[in-house]
Amino acid sequence: MESVADASRRISRISSHLLPPNIQMEGCGLRRENCRAKGAAPGFKVAVLGAAGGIGQPLAMLMKMNPLVSVLHLYDVVNSPGVTADISHMDTGAVVRGFLGQSQLEDALTGMDLVIIPAGVPRKPGMTRDDLFNINAGIVKTLCEGIAKCCPNAIVNLISNPVNSTVPIAAEVFKKAGTFDPKRLLGVTMLDVVRANTFVAEVLGLDPRDVDVPVVGGHAGVTILPLLSQVKPPCAFNAKEIDYLTNRIQNGGTEVVEAKAGAGSATLSMAYAAVKFADACLRGLRGDAGIIQCAFVASQVTELPFFASKVRLGRSGVEEVHPLGPLNEYERDGLEKAKKELEASIQKGVSFIRK
Ligand SMILES: NC(=O)c1ccc[n+]([C@@H]2O[C@H](COP(=O)([O-])OP(=O)(O)OC[C@H]3O[C@@H](n4cnc5c(N)ncnc54)[C@H](O)[C@@H]3O)[C@@H](O)[C@H]2O)c1
Ligand SMILES: O=C(O)C[C@H](O)C(=O)O
């Protein structure tokens, strides 16, 4: 089996050119460095950390297809050379470079505009997201230390679970490094919105693309709070529908974990949601107006320091955190339950760094 050191050397060779790592062309007398490619076209530089994983691979593929991306860095502690070689053959504009192992983390991050983090272990049946804390907290800490050092102005999209704790961990790492900008740290809760749109559309008999359900709070169990009273297009649900939809949206992740029966959690729908969210962040960075998405961010919308709600994205990241709007009694009850659990998860993340 190839050692990490050998694989590192191999990926360095592959990554040392702006051209994709296609086969060596000496056989026909042409070396890669003699090709006429001038390097990356204008666009954003994006890194995916955990790029060889279940989410990372389809996410990397979809980001390679995004016309706003000019450079795509794929980092993982295993298998990134293969994923990089594979994706680099796609005939889209982004130049792809691979990075393997901690020794290449800084190169992976330097100069990035957006860093997407799906690194970490997923759930198995019977586990909660919080059961992932012990492993994923350390992974997120290390990666965020790298971001603070190498690309402190990058927008960070944090996917690794438990999001309700990993976002506070990231914030504490950045505070310690003196680089924390609350506008640039976003926990990705887009999958909850994607699921909510799908399930609500099913109940209403609509096309999910025409449905918009705000989902606020956090990203675990009762902290996932769909605001069904604010669905667009405006509609009414009966009590049975509200119970069914709220439970299904809150337990959508568990539904997938159980169906995968030990083979991990949502990867494909998550990659789709992550790319939808990353694309919104990039359009905001480009200066597009009126880009609103839900995300778990530093917030004053409740008394908690972090909360998921609608945010307006722009050139500096989160430019405005929207208030929750009018809630009905069912949602007000849900909000109290969500806040109780969220407070403990946030505190757990903060203590992990401050201890
Ligand atoms: N926010 C959400 O909505 C959401 C949705 C789905 C999954 N998730 C979470 O995303 C995470 C990844 O899920 P997955 O299914 O892709 O898991 P996976 O095990 O398939 O992939 C994780 C990848 O992370 C890599 N990794 C581990 N340690 C690393 C490190 N220190 N640096 C860089 N990479 C490292 C692994 O090598 C692996 O390739 C899990 O924590 C999961 O719970 C979040
Ligand atoms: O459920 C999980 O563990 C993964 C993810 O958070 C999800 O919502 O699918």
Please explain how this structure is put together:
The chain has 355 residues and is an alpha/beta fold. The protein folds into two domains: 39-188, Rossmann fold (3-Layer(aba) Sandwich), CATH 3.40.50; 189-354, L-2-Hydroxyisocaproate Dehydrogenase, Chain A, domain 2, CATH 3.90.110.10. It is 42% helix and 17% strand. It has eleven helices and eleven strands. The chain has helices spanning 4-15, 56-64, 80-88, 105-109, 133-150, 163-177, 190-204, 239-250, 252-260, 268-286, 329-354, and strands at 44-49, 69-76, 95-100, 114-117, 155-158, 185-187, 215-217, 224-226, 291-298, 306-314, 317-321. The strands form three sheets. The protein has a six-stranded parallel sheet, sandwiched between helices. Strand 2 (69-76), helix 3 and strand 3 form a beta-alpha-beta unit. The longest helix has 26 residues, at 329-354. It starts with a helix and ends with a helix. The model is unreliable at 13-26 (pLDDT under 50). Nicotinamide-adenine-dinucleotide is lined by residues 49-50, 52-56, 76-78, 118-123, 132, 136, 139, 142-143, 159-161, 163, 188, 191, 219, 264-267, 270. (2S)-2-hydroxybutanedioic acid (LMR) binds next to helix 9.
